Amino acid sequence: MNTAAVPFTPARTESMLTQLAGKETARYARHPLFLVGVVLVASSSIGKPDGFSSSLGNVIAPAAGLGVIGLLVMASLTRTSDQVATAAGTVAVSERTRTMALVCAMIVPFTAGLIWLLWAIWAYRHWPPAANGAPFGGVSDGWAYANLIALGLIPSLGGPVLGLLLARWVPRRGAAPLFAVLVVAETIIMQGLFEPLRYARLVAPWTYFTGPYGVPGDADRIMILTGSPHWYCVYLLALCALGVVLALLHDREHPRNRLFVALGVIAAVAVITCVLAITTGVQDVMINPLPSGLS
């Protein structure tokens, strides 16, 4: 007996997306790795933060706990979603709808990142950086808040986007852990430790703007590196949008012309904002005139 196919009307597709998004959101919130990441972030937020840079010194916690771990979580959820669709035989939900549902599920890590950001801003104001810390000189608190957003909040979105993109185009089981290791290695290289890379480091999806880079005779002297964290935030958001569009482009069953147009526009925005992040803001490395007191 032949079964008539049910057409995917816009209303039906929207209803399916809403239902599937709810399921994927719940799956993300219950994922063991996400819960581990939340515990790591929460434990790093207990007590007084670093005395030199206040909560600016804590950005690595959400970047790792919600970003890098989020990459692994989303890659896992994407594989599971595809396996369920394959096991169903005739796919009742298109890949594009499943991808959009997974994008909706990113509200979970983003909310966790937002909670961390609220704590970080409170901690920064409650325990301001020391005079020999950062920021200093003419650098304002707005610079610090942009740092917290770029390096603490946005990774909670960027990591899962990267996991989704990777799972769509490289659906091998070991690809996500390997790529997570590569991301960490790239971050170490581009975080400003190597002076020749400091000016161009902002092409990377995560890098510091300040830290104890040291000077002769004071290995822990605080510096502020070049670049604008405000434009860097916009650049990172453009990268997130770019990742979502690239993930959606994997589905060849739906028209992709508009996605290609969006890809071109967002790529142009990413290039422009990256250039602005590099060429505006602080343009000469600033060295805190006060000694670190640690050397």
From TrEMBL:
- Name the domain of life: Bacteria
Q: What are the protein's UniProt keywords?
A: Membrane, Transmembrane, Transmembrane helix
Where does the sequence pass through the membrane?
59-78, 99-122, 142-167, 174-194, 229-249, 261-282
Q: What is this protein called?
A: ABC-2 type transport system permease protein
Q: What is the lineage of its organism?
A: Bacteria, Bacillati, Actinomycetota, Actinomycetes, Propionibacteriales
